[in-house]
Amino acid sequence: MTPIRGLFQRPKKSGIWWIRYADANGRDRREKAGTKTMAVALYRKRKTEILQGRKLPETLRRKIVSFRELCEDAAAYAREHHQTDRERDYRADRLISLFGSRPADSITPQDLDRELTRLGRDRRWSPASYNRYKAFVSLAYRLGIESGKVHVNPARSVRHRRENNGRVRWLSKQDEQKLRGVIHEDYPAEHPAFQIALHTGMRRSEQYRLTWDCVDMERRQITIPKTKNGAIRYIPLNDTALSAFRTLKERTQGQGAVMVAGIGGHGVAKGDALKSPRMWFDAACRKAGVYDFTWHCLRHTYASRLVMAGVGLRDVQELMGHKTIAMTCRYAHLAPSHQLAAVRRLDRWAQDGRKSQNPTGTKTGTGHFGGQEAGGGDSGQVFVQ
């Protein structure tokens, strides 16, 4: 085959062929074709149309939008509508490093799955991390479709990884005593923050973005104006949480950010607003010997203790701010007394059944509970146990 100057691969050696040509007005055009054979056929077709003076499709006049541009738009959208203080979204940067300046409409579902799988293997991602990156790509393309920059969302065809959210790590009484001991000894100024997390169940971002205008000491209520789900949420304060807030209020005079540094260090001056507890919490857990425990586990502890105290799952859902009851049901197994009370209703049902079948208390030989043909009295006893 005679080489055609208007053919090229993008990216190089990818097997994805494009064509380049000048239209009747001298404007440069580029189109994705697919295989080399398809590229040759498309190139000859366009040349023929130009010679015949046919009008080219309007889609050819559209600017080629890069994957980088879509990611930048999605990162800006996330900063505006989601709870994040990051100047740059780390997901956008890593995704841009994968696909760079490739045209957004040239990326296939297979490309996404292959590259995300490779990156996840290198960085030892959990299925949840993989799904978060896939969701960000889907957001980028969805916004691109809304703005008319692209027409197809390849992320929709990428398989969702199954997440294992069944494990709940919560703080036992013994671990709590050890951790409190370390906090009192090494980080006494951070004890109110620990108390608030343990007795309100706030997410870390909610707690460390909280301002005093959202704390009502008289009504004993916190207002979260914008939660992870985008809705407003109200959190009641028990005596322990209220006492912790009073301690912090003395430190800040009740203005500005609630979570401020009680002491200097780690590049933070005393009284400065804190963005997270990482500067001290991880070190405290290591010293206390409480392993595989993060700040978010304090939220799990809050929910777990509510359930074990007999609070209904619907109430726990509202206190936690869960969007669906399914998320709250992860803690249902921590209420054994309620489950036992439920199954013991079968005891009463069985007893009522025996009374109705044998009102005189004598064996009839024909009843389901007393008769020998039905297994006698032993059969009913085994059922009850």
Can I get a quick summary?
This protein has 385 residues and is mainly alpha-helical. The chain has helices spanning 36-52, 67-81, 90-99, 109-123, 127-146, 173-186, 191-200, 204-208, 239-252, 281-288, 296-308, 313-320, 325-328, 336-343, 345-357, 376-384, and strands at residues 7-9, 17-22, 28-34, 215-216, 221-224, 233-236.
Question: What's the structural blueprint in terms of helices and strands?
Answer:
Elements: E1 7-9, E2 17-22, E3 28-34, H1 36-52, H2 67-81, H3 90-99, H4 109-123, H5 127-146, H6 173-186, H7 191-200, H8 204-208, E4 215-216, E5 221-224, E6 233-236, H9 239-252, H10 281-288, H11 296-308, H12 313-320, H13 325-328, H14 336-343, H15 345-357, H16 376-384
Helix pairs in contact: 2-3, 2-5, 4-5, 6-10, 7-9, 7-11, 11-12
Description:
With 385 residues, the chain is mostly helical. It is 48% helix and 7% strand. It folds into four domains: 7-61, no CATH class; 67-157, Tyrosine recombinase, N-terminal domain (DNA polymerase, domain 1, Orthogonal Bundle); 173-337, hpI Integrase, Chain A (Orthogonal Bundle); 346-384, no CATH class. Helix 2 runs antiparallel to helix 3 (90-99) and helix 11 (296-308) packs antiparallel against helix 12 (313-320). It is elongated. The termini are far apart. The model is unreliable at 364-385 (pLDDT under 50).
How do the helices and strands follow one another from N- to C-terminus? EEEHHHHHHHHEEEHHHHHHHH
Helical segment count? 16
Strand order in the sheet with the most strands: 1-2-3
* Proportion of residues in extended strands: 5-15%
List low-confidence stretches. Answer: 364-385
Q: Which term fits the overall shape?
A: elongated
Alpha-beta content class: mainly alpha
